[in-house]
Amino acid sequence: MSSVFNKLSVTYRIISSCKRQIIVQRSVSSAQEKLHGYENEFQKEEIRQFDAGSYEVPKNYDLSKIVNEIKNGQGFFVLKGVFSKDEIDAAKEVVDYCTYNKRVDTNTDTNQYAKHNSYGGMKAGGIIWRLIGKGEIFERLAQHPATLEITRALLGPKSQLSSYMSNTVLPGMGGQLPHLDYPYYDGFFPTSESNMQRPLLSVAFMIMLSKFDVENGGTAFRPGSQRNPTYPHDKEDFFRNMVQLEGEPGDVGIFAASTQHCAMQNNGTEPRVGIVQSMVPIYMQPYHDIKLPEDHMTKASADLKTILAHGHPYPMKHG
Fold this sequence. Notes:
The chain is α+β, with helices and mostly antiparallel strands and 319 residues long. 23% of the residues lie in helices and 19% in strands. It is built from nine helices and 13 strands. The strands form four sheets. Strands 5-11-8-13-7-6 form a six-stranded antiparallel beta sheet, with helices on one face. Helix 3 crosses helix 6 (145-155). The protein is globular, with a radius of gyration of 19 Å.
């Protein structure tokens, strides 16, 4: 296996005791200020050999197998044990607060192909956009060495963040219509759908903050549909051939944006919560304009600067 995990041979400090400083208060007046104060405080207790820094090593990581599955296989793959319980709990605390107290539908694309991005309507569940800037935990999740290596293998070394959002599906909430993700939208390609055959233009990582299973409506995919991308106009055909994503909190579902998919109805008793991190090549217009203040970027890691396309020279601006 050729990967970042067997290329490094450095002694790293393991976080075995993590004191989380969760500053999310019920007071609406102080919520905005407190969310930006959310952080982790680590206590170093032991040293051992570990090739992923302070991150977990996924249990079934095999770069060549994953890349082949996304491009030529089913179009999706579940990576097991990517994030620790502390990381998942920290992210879910903020996602839950924003979902139940601050969610506003900011989807500005009213075309039919983007209707799924208004998922949740006026209900308490639904989508929270642009997680970067809502807590340092989201910067950390976006920079896992495994997901970055997979992205670079599929899309190129300077791949960037296209969108970064959470989705909360409450018990009883219905599902989405089957769809493809940006940029595989109706009207974005020449008339014949055969012209959608291009190099893979986007890959997404579904970070599971809760259990995903058939009962609670784990994301449905039509296996192999990314090999010949077409928009799923025939909904009945999609549901006859779909399979559902299943996994535990901390697992990550990886899928090509050109794979037909949709969120399913939650028939369980608990919310289903996930984060979707979508990546595109540097030469593509991202789905969202995701930026952090310049004073924040001066302290940012090289990986964070890369996935936010910080300092990218295009498009050029001429007087």
